[in-house]
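Quick one, C-alpha cells below. Sequence please?
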C-alpha cells in the first residue's frame, strides 16, 4: 500500500469507527479535507467519496483520470439563524417541538450536533413557559439518567451519551425563552454560538439576564410574537435602518433583511 493511501487510512480511521453508514462517512470526510489542492492525497479521498471499491493498484490508475471536485450529498435542514455582528450566531427555534440529533446528510432534525450521538437523540417540547426534554437515547440531566420527559430548569446540564453536554439557560422567569449551549469542544452543524428556544419574547441586550448578551450595546432589542411572525421593539434613539431605510419600531423581523443602528447590526437568515 502506498504512503498516501496509508495516510488516508490513518487519518480517517477514527471517522470510520464513529459513523454508521457510508453516507455519514462520506459527509464527515468531505468536511475534514478540502476536495482540491491536496495532490494525490485529496484525489484518493475524492475517488473514495465517489464510491470506488477498487483495490490499491486499481485506485492508483483511477487517480490518473479526471475526478469530480465534489461528491453528491443530501442536504440537511437549516435552522433560521440570527447573525449579530460582534456577538455571534443563534438558531431561532420557535416551534413547539425541537429535535436534536447527529449531523449528517439527510438527517431531519432541527438542531444537529457533530459528535457521537443518535440520529434522533432528544426532543425538547415547549409547555407553557417551561421546556421539557424527552429522551430518545441514553440521556442524563444533572447527572441523573432519565427515561421520560422532565422539566428543564435554569442551569440544567444535559448529557447526550458519554461525550456531549448541553447547558440549558433561562436568564429570566419573565419570559419562556431559553438558550441552549454546547459545553466543551463539540460543535453545532452549522456552526452556532447557541440555540434559542423561543417563548413569547426574547431579549437581546447588554444585561446579563438577556437571552443574548450583547456587551457593547447600551440599548436592548425585544423580539416578540405577533401571530405567526416575529416583531422587533427597540428605542427610537437607536436609529434603526432596514436595508438602508430608516424605520420606526415595532417592525417585523424578516429573513434576509439587514438591520442596522448606531450600535446594532444583525440579519436573520
Amino acid at each position: 500500500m502506498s504512503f498516501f493511501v496509508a495516510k488516508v487510512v490513518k487519518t480517517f480511521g477514527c471517522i470510520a469507527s464513529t459513523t454508521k453508514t457510508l453516507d455519514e462517512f462520506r459527509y464527515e470526510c468531505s468536511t475534514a479535507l478540502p476536495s482540491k489542492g491536496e495532490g494525490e492525497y485529496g484525489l484518493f479521498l475524492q475517488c473514495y467519496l465517489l464510491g470506488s471499491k477498487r483495490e490499491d493498484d486499481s485506485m492508483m490508475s483511477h487517480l490518473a483520470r479526471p475526478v469530480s471536485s465534489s461528491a453528491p450529498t443530501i442536504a440537511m435542514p437549516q435552522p433560521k439563524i440570527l447573525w449579530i455582528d460582534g456577538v455571534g450566531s443563534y438558531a431561532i427555534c420557535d416551534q413547539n417541538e425541537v429535535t436534536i440529533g447527529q449531523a449528517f446528510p439527510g438527517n431531519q432534525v432541527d438542531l444537529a450536533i457533530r459528535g457521537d450521538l443518535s440520529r434522533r437523540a432528544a426532543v425538547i417540547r415547549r409547555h407553557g413557559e417551561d421546556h421539557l426534554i424527552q429522551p430518545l437515547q441514553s440521556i442524563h440531566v444533572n447527572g441523573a439518567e432519565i427515561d421520560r420527559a422532565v422539566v428543564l430548569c435554569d442551569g440544567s446540564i444535559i448529557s447526550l451519551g458519554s461525550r456531549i453536554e448541553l447547558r440549558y439557560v433561562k436568564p429570566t422567569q419573565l419570559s419562556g425563552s431559553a438558550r441552549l449551549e454546547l459545553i466543551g469542544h463539540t460543535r453545532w452543524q452549522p456552526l452556532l454560538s447557541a440555540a434559542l428556544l423561543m417563548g413569547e419574547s426574547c431579549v437581546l441586550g447588554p444585561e446579563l439576564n438577556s437571552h443574548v448578551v450583547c456587551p457593547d450595546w447600551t440599548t436592548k432589542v425585544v423580539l416578540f410574537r405577533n401571530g405567526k411572525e416575529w416583531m422587533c421593539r427597540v428605542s427610537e434613539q437607536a436609529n434603526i435602518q432596514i436595508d438602508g431605510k430608516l424605520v420606526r419600531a415595532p417592525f417585523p423581523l424578516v429573513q434576509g433583511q439587514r438591520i442596522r443602528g448606531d450600535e446594532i447590526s444583525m440579519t436573520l437568515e
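The first helix runs from residue 3 to 18. Residues 1-11, 33-69 have pLDDT under 50 and may be disordered.
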